[in-house]
Amino acid sequence: MQQTKILTINRKKVFTLTQFTALVVVATTVPLFNQQAITGPVVNATLFVSVALLGVQNAILVGLIPSLVALSTGLLPPVLAPMIPFIMVGNTILIMVFGYLKERNFWLGVITASVLKFLFLFSTSSIVINLLLKKEVATKVAMMMSWPQLLTALVGGLLAFVFLKGIRKI
Q: What span, in angstroms and rounded, lies between the C-alpha atoms of 113 and 108?
């Protein structure tokens, strides 16, 4: 009896670790496409799915690792480096808000989390970028941190919904 219980616990841990690893791999390899229209929705979908499958704490780790990998491997344009901490906080906002609201209503969670992440990134990027970058570069980076952030988060929510519905987790 005791051995069966231990095996069951270990299987659950292995399954959770496997899910965590798969989600981190997706979130860190998708930026290789170097297309915000692909990367943004897939990474945001990964964050939403991480919350649904692994819980908020593990999802926060999934949300932090891709930014660190992108910066350390040179995937992220150097001009975006000052935004890394803010992108990490934006991902954490998305995860925590979605985690709080998803049980009440999945779409309320997706929309609220997406809007709050967008507002945070847009407002902080305007300040940070204008302080640190040349005007012509700042305008381009500020554009990347504006409405595309909202759109990619919402599309990510839709992708997550389809995926989670497909595996019967919602």
A: 8
Q: How many domains does the chain have?
A: 1
Domain of 35, CATH number, reads 1.10.1760.20
Domain that holds residue 35: 2-166
Q: Please enumerate in sequence order all residues whose Cβ is within 8 A of that of 79, keeping only pairs 6 or more positions apart, or say none.
A: 133, 137, 141
Please tell me the total number of residues recorded for the chain in this structure.
Answer: 170
pTM over 0.85? The answer is yes
DSSP string, 19-58: HHHHHHHHHHHGGGG--HHHHHHHHHHHHHHHHHHH-HHH
| pLDDT (tens digit per residue) in 35-62 | 778 989 999 999 999 999 999 999 999 9
